[in-house]
Amino acid sequence: MKLGIFGGTFDPVHYGHLVLADTCRLQLSLDQVRLVPAGAPPHKTDMAITDAHTRADMLKLAVSGYPEFVVDRREIRRTGKSFTVSTLTDFRNEFPDAELFFLMGADSLRDIPTWKEPERIAQLATIVAVNRPGLPELTQPQVVKWIGEDLANVVETVTMPGTDVSATDLRSRVRNGAGLRFLVPRAVEAYIDQHRVYS
Ligand code: ATP
Asked: Is residue 114 part of a domain?
């Protein structure tokens, strides 16, 4: 089985995330994509982050009715910081025969050298990088510049329809009263309204 693993803060999940996950599913023929909300993201320690189960519940609403997408709460259940290398080791042990693909946007790819054990991450799963508006195109020289030749040689790139949405912008839209119409699935929009998640 080909298993996609897509981690993020998802605060909140939006169409950028969903189009990324589905484009990878189609282009790489993934049987399933696990969406893994971070419990305590190591690189976002200085920010106030929404309760992890609230973020996971929004994800669940977003993918409801799409059986290839599964919300996986393993990073939330684990206490302490969520390191990708530990999460992927977990998946490797749980699915010894699966081919693992770790999906990410271009900004995450650029940051990988600052993560714990990037080389080990690349051994555990194929790193799949996807274009993101506002970042350079993912050409081979660009990828080499960001992450060095050794890692760049094992990265796969996938191109999705550019979706210029970020969770940071969405949170400020809610605070400013602009709402999230057509930027997140309707059920997520309704949940955020009802529970006043970002107000
Ligand atoms: P924030 O604005 O709070 O930093 P974000 O919108 O970047 O959030 P994250 O949950 O941090 O969302 O991102 C999870 C993953 O999704 C990352 O790998 C990121 O690169 C990717 N991603 C997020 N938004 C997009 C987008 N619009 N296009 C492509 N990739 C995206």
From this structure: yes
In a domain, 170, yes or no: no
Nearest-CA residue for ligand 1 atom 20 is: 105
Query: Of all atoms in ligand 1, which is nearest to the CA of residue 106?
Result: 20
For residue range 95-138, list pLDDT tens digits in order. Answer: 999 999 999 999 999 999 999 999 999 999 999 999 999 999 99
Residue 184 maps to a domain: no
Q: Which ligand 1 atom is nearest residue 166's CA? A: 6
Domain extent, residue 19, equals 2-162
CATH code at position 147:
3.40.50.620
The residue whose CA is least distant from atom 19 of ligand 1 is 105
Q: In DSSP terms, which residues pair with 12 in a beta bridge?
A: none
Domain count along the chain: 1
Digit-coded pLDDT (tens) for 39-97: 976 666 656 789 999 999 999 999 999 999 999 999 999 987 889 999 999 999 999 99
Bridge pairing between strands 69-71 and 156-158: unpaired
Instruction: Please give the model's pTM, rounded to 2 decimal places.
Output: 0.96
Both tokens of residue 45? Answer: 């320690």
Protein residue with least CA distance to atom 22, ligand 1? 105
